[in-house]
Write a structure and sequence with these properties.
two-stranded antiparallel ribbon; 4 strands; mainly alpha; 400 residues
Amino acid sequence: MDFFNKIKGDKAIWAIVALLALFSFLPVYSASSNLVYVVGNGTQTTISFLFKHAFLLALGFAIIYGIHKIPIHFFKGLSLIALPIILLLLVYTLAQGTTIGGANASRWIRLPFIGFTFQTSTLAAVVLMVYVARYLTKIKDKTIRFTESLLPLWLPVAIVVVLILPANFSTAAIIFFMVMVLCFLGGYPIKYLLGILLSGALFLTLFILTAKAVPDLFPNRVTTWENRIESFFDGEDGEAGYQIEKAKIAIATGGIIGKGAGKSVQKNFLPQSSSDFIFAIIIEEYGLVGGLLLVFFYLLLLFRIVVVANGNTTIFGKLVVVGVGLPIVFQAFINMAVAVELFPVTGQTLPLISSGGTSTWMTCLAIGIILSASNKETVAEPSSVDENENNPLEVLSGQL
């Protein structure tokens, strides 16, 4: 009971996150039978994958607990410190090369000593959203000129997106889209946002043309995007087409109430059944009822995020909650849309449900920030005193 008394912030968000995490054990344990033979080569068991998932979630909840105790305005200074580190990590990740053992290596770095891989783009997404929220807070009530915001706002955004784009188009696109949404909500002029949107489209076109003209520059990436889009629109064969086919079979055979926990058949044939396509396995085992219930919990999480943002007493608190909270729900619905063939294959996981370390940890980091913003003990009350006076990190970083 003493532990529960130490938990602060929005209790509904705590409950939703806990329920999603607890439910994840069932589909992950069921779908991990595929990983036993594909990844573990038969040397591991489903229990070992289940324990790994439990460890990753336990660490994730430790992140939530630690982060939600930090006063929300401290993240303004932390974003300034973390952003240069993130840029260096992204450069290092991209510089590793294109493949290691046949897998795309320009998405992950391997953590020393513990052996886990870490996807730097997921951390970059959270840090960048906090940084953008900080900048929008700083320029509130000021006349915004595009030239003045070019270096402090759009240059970091452009660098992060460009460094992620060659290896992970979907993540880069989500980050760019969410930054645009946050800037719109933060009062950034629409005419400037339209200019940024057009510039982004022109850059993407140039990138694709360059990659097509010089295939060795970004091997396999643009081809992969093309294959996934062609498979989506034309129903062609290939890896993406095969995944979608098996996912649709799983969904179609699930019916209303599903086959029951652990009774999925397609988990043995569907690649990434415990991560990217776990929603299809959930519907196969728990039916339309299970799928709709999962959708309900993500919508409920979205509702609570909006409530927390609306109830926060600071501009930064409102913006940062939206900035780190919306991508969680957005990613969830992209994952579901891919499984039901409403969207091309993206490789995005289902937050708090799919197996995987980095995505789980970064989702928990974002949730911790949201809970910090909902914690009355860590939110500065409105006053004539600048909230940064109590933030040594912001004082240390100056007025950049």
